[in-house]
Design brief:
The structure is a single chain. By secondary structure, the protein is mainly alpha-helical. Among the domains are: 59-123, 2-Layer Sandwich (Dna Ligase, domain 1), CATH 3.30.1490; 128-189, no CATH class; 309-345, Classic Zinc Finger (Double Stranded RNA Binding Domain, 2-Layer Sandwich), CATH 3.30.160. It contains 13 helices and 6 strands. The protein has a two-stranded antiparallel ribbon with strand order 1-2. Strands 3-4 form a two-stranded antiparallel ribbon. A hairpin with a 5-residue loop joins β5 (312-315) and β6 (321-324). α2 packs across α4, α8 (209-222) crosses α9 (229-241) and α8 packs across α12 (296-303). The longest helix has 31 residues, at 19-49. 28% of the residues are buried.
Length: 345
């Protein structure tokens, strides 16, 4: 056999496998394991993030200002809103939402999920509290009421001008300053005055919105009966047109107290005869400023008073008033009221 017929050792011998091949296989296996772990971790996180909590009833939770996602997660955990603060933090950071959480008081519904809780905090719709300001209070009384209202911050030290605050129900979030509520009330009063003044009745003896506000404050203090406001306003309009003194007791009271506190006693004849800038028994026309903060209904009544010939009214013992066109009829009504007063003592 010739040399050319013998098999070549180089052609039949297998090449040894490179160590890099083993490394490559190992790395592929590791990658697949990591992907499997990551996929499992992702599924676990999403399951935790969408899991219903054990919260059995709606709950209000306060998130302090300056709280980061870790502190928020712990607060929600301690309040029973979420079960897994770790999953809550990781998902929010993964979604780049951890900086979007708001502070304040929030209402979380029963069986809320972490995802729902996060949405509530991101949306930022805090729990709203309400404070109702009754009609006819003086500015001092309103500020006293606000300074005692829970959930508001920073006492109001300066009393706003009389008549500048619109009595109404105002909503606020916990932590709102009392000055903010006062500002809202003043804006609401100005808006109401502007609107109603534009739609006022023609021919009124009121030269400005300020005068309308003064008369509205008197109407507010004279009657709490809604159906009477326009007629009471009509009486005062008639008296102004006839250059008659208004002769209304609440102005005398305000001249004595200046709205600082209740008078605490009945008016005396001497009170009616003692001159003050507000005493409409001794002065013609309107007092120099409002005597309380009137509501919208009283302002509207003054700017659109009832058509009436009445010039007088007095309490009738039922919570309302008896109206009359003449002094004689008025005196008879006054006598009836005095009799009712005596019977009630």
């Amino acid at each position: 056999m010739s040399e050319s017929d013998q098999p070549s050792a180089q052609k039949t011998q297998k090449k040894p496998k490179s160590p890099l091949w083993k490394v490559s296989v190992f790395l592929v296996v590791i990658v697949f394991l990591l992907l499997d772990i990551a996929a499992g971790g992702y599924v676990w996180l999403m399951n935790e993030y969408s899991a219903t909590s054990v919260l059995q009833e709606d709950k209000v939770v306060e998130i302090p200002h300056g709280s980061g996602v870790s502190k928020i997660a712990q607060i929600l955990k301690s309040e029973g809103v979420i079960d897994n603060p770790l999953a809550f933090r990781i998902v929010l950071r993964f979604k780049n939402l951890d900086k979007a959480l708001k502070a304040g008081e929030f209402l979380f519904p029963a069986q809320v999920t972490p995802e729902m809780a996060a949405h509530i905090l991101i949306e930022g719709k805090t729990v709203l509290h309400r404070v109702t300001i009754p009609e006819g209070l003086t500015s001092v009384e309103i500020i006293t009421l606000l300074n005692h209202e829970q959930g508001l911050e920073e006492m109001v030290m300066q009393t706003p001008p009389e008549g500048s605050l619109l009595p109404e129900t105002y909503s606020f979030s916990k932590g709102t300053t009392r000055a903010t509520i006062v500002s809202h009330m003043q804006e609401a009063m100005q808006h109401t005055l502007d609107e109603l003044w534009t739609n006022r009745q023609d021919g009124l003896p009121l030269r400005s919105k300020a005068e309308a506000l003064i008369l509205a404050s008197i109407v507010e203090k004279e009657t709490a009966v809604h159906a009477e406001r326009a007629k009471v306003a009509g009486v005062f309009i008639n008296r102004l047109n006839k250059r008659m003194r208004l002769q209304t007791d609440p102005t005398v009271v305000y001249g004595i107290t200046l709205g600082q506190e209740p008078l605490g006693r009945p008016l005396s004849r001497k009170d009616l005869q003692t001159p003050t800038p507000y005493n409409t028994y001794t002065n013609y026309g309107l007092p120099p400023s409002p005597i309380c903060n009137p509501g919208r209904a009283s302002i509207e009544a003054v700017l659109n008073p009832a058509e009436t010939d009445a010039l007088y009214f007095v309490a009738d013992g039922s919570g309302g008033h008896a109206f009359s066109n003449s002094l004689d009829a008025h005196n008879r009504n006054v006598a009836k009221w005095r009799k009712i007063e005596r019977s009630q003592k």
